[in-house]
Automatic annotation (TrEMBL):
Protein name: Oxygen sensor histidine kinase NreB
Coiled-coil intervals, chain numbering: 175-202
Lineage start: Bacteria, Bacillati, Actinomycetota, Actinomycetes, Streptosporangiales
SUPFAM superfamilies: ATPase domain of HSP90 chaperone/DNA topoisomerase II/histidine kinase
Catalyzed chemical reaction(s): ATP + protein L-histidine = ADP + protein N-phospho-L-histidine
UniProt GO MF annotations: kinase activity
Protein's UniProt keywords contain Lipid biosynthesis: no
Residues of the Histidine kinase domain: 324-415
């Protein structure tokens, strides 16, 4: 686009340079021919030379030295062109050879307004016909038809040439305007592309930060759901072993349980770092994994935990099953810490496009709206909500002091292998 614009500008400059010298060349040629053909008095020759110099000076002052003046058609062009025609007409009346200089009148008719240009062309055609008839003395009563014929030929030829020239000039101006508009559009497009590149980089940075934040949240949830709970269980068993040893009871059993829990916590920590699915789901379906988790929890805390399944069991996406299993583990951990329950029931329901896990206990209960996320035990509820929300699920908690607690997690039933 810029190359085309440069080409047009170069061609226009060359054309303007040629048009600037045409008046002087034509006037000099006409003056030379008039001097060679006119053998009149010295005063007549001096008058011709003086008018020629005045015409050249008028053109130089109005069109060459101040090229912007004729472009203002209301005043400068309305003064410049009539004076120019008067000077050329006077020269032709003195010597018909000055008809060669009339080309300046045709060219400078461009300075007039479009509706007046043809008037200037017809006046120039009349002066050219007068010069071709030998000047004013060559036109008498019998030669008027010939003069009118010559005028008509000149008017048609010069008018047609000027018309094509003016149309070409208009097309050139339109083409330049289109090129300028396209150049502006390209500039805006480049600016928009640069802005989009900046926005893209910003979005990438935000996405990277969001990914880091999500990964931190995931690791925090995994640590809370696996390592922290496992270590808490280890501490509990070691304390129980210490107390049993003081009573000479079965303290070795507590130590064995603590060792087993420590190994499981270490394995879960490694799985969390590697973003693998929970170990109970590796070799078992979700209902069996829940039953195993509940059995281990019952053996550890001595509180019965029953698991029931409704609907047709289907293998779901690992994220869905892992979310439900971790939710059940966290819910049981909260029961062990706070509920002082005598019975826990877990219900896994397969319902069309939803899977629901309900965990109910008959413990002390609490007021859900009064539990802060940073309070003891509060992070577990927050982690459960985040974990369930990550798979587009919902978590509902119903509880009140002295009436037990019911936690219900509902997640989409996304089958295994579904990219969603």
């Amino acid at each position: 686009m810029r190359d085309h614009q440069s080409g047009f500008d170069l061609w226009e400059r060359r054309e303007q340079s040629v048009l600037r010298i045409v008046p002087y060349v034509s006037l000099a040629l006409a003056t030379a021919l008039s001097l060679l053909s006119d053998h009149g008095s010295a005063g007549r020759v001096a008058l011709q030379l003086g008018l020629s110099a005045a015409t050249a000076g008028w053109i130089a002052w109005m069109a060459t030295l101040h090229p912007q003046w004729p472009d203002r058609p209301r005043v400068p062009a309305g003064v410049y062109y009539p004076v120019l025609i008067c000077l050329l007409g006077t020269l032709i009346s003195l010597n018909p050879m000055y008809g060669f200089a009339i080309i300046t009148g045709y060219v400078h008719a461009f300075y007039l307004r479009p509706r007046v240009r043809f008037v200037g062309v017809f006046v120039c055609a009349a002066l050219a016909a007068l010069a071709q008839m030998g000047g004013p003395g060559g036109v008498d009563g019998g030669s008027w038809p010939l003069y009118l014929l010559i005028f008509a030929v000149n008017a048609l030829m010069s008018g047609g040439i000027c018309l094509f020239a003016w149309r070409g000039d208009e097309e050139t101006q339109q083409r330049k305007a289109i090129i300028n508009e396209l150049a502006e559009a390209n500039a805006r497009l480049e600016s928009a592309l640069e802005e989009n590149a900046g926005l893209h980089a910003q979005l990438l940075a935000q996405a990277r930060e969001a990914g880091v934040h999500d990964e931190r949240q995931r690791m925090a949830g995994e640590i809370h759901d696996t390592i922290a709970q496992g270590l808490a269980g280890v501490v509990t068993q070691l304390q129980a072993a210490e107390q049993a040893r003081a009573r000479d009871a079965d303290w070795k059993r507590h130590l064995d349980i603590a060792q087993q829990m420590a190994r499981e916590s270490l394995a879960e920590a490694r799985r969390s770092v590697q973003a693998l699915r929970p170990q109970p789901l590796e070799d078992s379906a979700l209902p069996d994994a829940l039953a195993d988790v509940a059995s281990r929890w019952t053996a550890l805390h001595g509180v019965p935990a029953e698991v029931s399944t409704t609907g047709t069991v289907r293998i779901m996406h690992p994220e869905v099953e892992g979310t439900l299993l971790r939710t059940a583990q966290e819910a049981l951990a909260n029961v062990a810490k706070h509920a002082k329950a005598s019975r826990v029931a877990l219900t896994l329901s397969y319902m069309g496009d939803l899977i629901t896990l309900d965990v109910r206990d008959d413990g002390a209960g609490f007021a859900p709206d009064q539990v802060a996320p940073t309070a003891a035990g509060g992070y577990g509820l927050t982690a459960m909500r985040r974990r369930v929300a990550r798979v587009a699920g919902t978590l509902a908690i119903e509880s009140e002091p002295g009436a037990g607690t019911a936690i219900s997690a509902s997640v989409p039933a996304v089958p295994v292998g579904d990219p969603a």
